[in-house]
Write a structure and sequence with these properties.
83 residues; alpha+beta; 2 helices; globular; YkuJ-like; DUF1797 domain-containing protein
């Protein structure tokens, strides 16, 4: 299974868990370092990607498309692995 497929499956599980009406969230890490957190807001049917910088400060980006969210996460993970 490719890494991108795994990311999409995790995002889909957020959507499925959101059927209860509660905000769902997942962390994405590389080698124990948290790179980002994703939240799914079922009322708006949107994702919020919070990307952490070197100082641990988060920058939030909204997405209304699961594929674009997955690609952004994939790129973050790849950049960290290359360093």
């Amino acid at each position: 299974m490719s890494q991108l497929t795994g990311i999409i499956q995790r995002l889909k599980s957020l959507q499925e868990g959101g059927e209860t009406g509660e905000v769902q969230q997942r962390l994405f890490e590389v080698n124990g370092k948290t790179l980002c957190q994703v939240k799914f807001f079922p009322g708006k049917d949107t994702f919020e990607l919070e990307v952490y910088d070197k100082d641990g400060k988060g920058h939030k980006y909204p997405f209304d498309d699961i594929d674009m969210t997955a690609i952004e996460i994939f790129e973050l993970l790849q950049e960290e692995k290359q360093q």
